Amino acid sequence: MEGLGVLEEMGELARRGEAFALATVVWRQSPSSSQPGSRAIITAAGELHGWIGGACAEPVVIRAAQQVMAEGTARLLLLGTPEQFGAAVPDGITVIPISCQSEGALEVYVEPVLPVPHLVVVGDSPMARTLVTSAAALGWRADLVRGPDFTADGCERSMIVVATQGHHDEDVLERAVAARPAYVGLVGSRRRGATVLGYLADRGVPKDQLDRVRVPAGLDLGRTTHQEIAVAILAELVQLRASGALTGVRGRTPASESARQAEQEGPRPGTRPQEAIDPVCGMTVATDSSHPVRYEGADYYFCSAGCRQAFEKDPDAYLKRETRC
Q1: Which one is predicted more confidently, 237 or 316?
Q2: What is the DSSP string of 63-84?
Q3: In this structure, is residue 253 part of a structural domain?
């Protein structure tokens, strides 16, 4: 994948509301196989689509991409040996030592592309219109839908607020919970909510779906105006999103949470780690593209045949150096 193919894939991921990172080569030092302007997409799962360089650069860029997705901050990387850059590296640039036989170097800009939260408000009241306007002011994608016209297709990652106020409440809420969105709330009193949920339970709507409905929607601020109800609902959504309680709505990407947990737990016994440190040159390598050398009961992985051969000649020299570090 390259050129327009990368742009088309970006558009498709954005339409699906999936987080990804875009890596762009902005400088190269010959004989690197990449070119300025080369691009690649890295998904939250760590899949790379496109081209930014060979086996030396890819695992480094993938790891950096997952970090920028988790942090929401772009990063400029210099990939090469420290001797190639000396003391002239500007502040804010991350130098990542890699040691490839090609002796090339790359400067790669990695930026996160994160989906904005999507709020669907069903209803046509002043409160509903205020809620949509307020959410849009936060930079969210906010849609106002009249009750009878509501369909929940493609709302799995969305937050749905049912504010139909007695107009088709039951039908709209049934469609909303069936989509299993990140959030579903019903605007109304507790008594009204109990009646609606009881009716849907009698109609056979699964209990696990109904248990996810927040009613009344929003933080409890006591007796309030319709504008303040809108603020209370938006405040609840912001609070839940910031805490990571809304699945599929960033907070943090699921991949970054999994990567953090895996890093804390370490590799499971009997399994091959996804990445390892080359004991000869110190760079991070993908283990699925590396032929390991087993030495004293442990497997070691390498970026190239040259590093593997150097290790095989004198393993203790490199392992002792690794221990001192």
Answers
A1: 237
A2: HHHHHHHHHT--EEEEEE-HHH
A3: no
- Residues of the domain holding 206: 118-243
> Token pair 């990407």 is at which residue?
253
- Residue pLDDT, tens place only, 186-240: 999 999 999 999 999 999 999 999 999 999 999 988 878 999 999 999 999 999 9
Q: Which residue has the higher pLDDT, 270 or 296?
A: 296
- CA-only gyration radius of the chain, Å: 26
One DSSP character per residue, 20-56 reads: EEEEEEEEEETT-S--TT-EEEEETT--EEE-S-STT
Q: Is pLDDT above 50 for 267?
A: no
Predicted TM-score (pTM) of this structure: 0.61
Nearest-angstrom CA–CA distance, 233 and 184: 11
If one counts the domains in the chain, the total is 3
What distance in Å separates the CA atoms of residue 109 and residue 28, rounded to the nearest whole number?
A: 12
- CATH code for the domain of 168: 3.40.50.720
Question: Is 250 inside a domain boundary?
Answer: no
Residue labelled with tokens 């440190």: 277
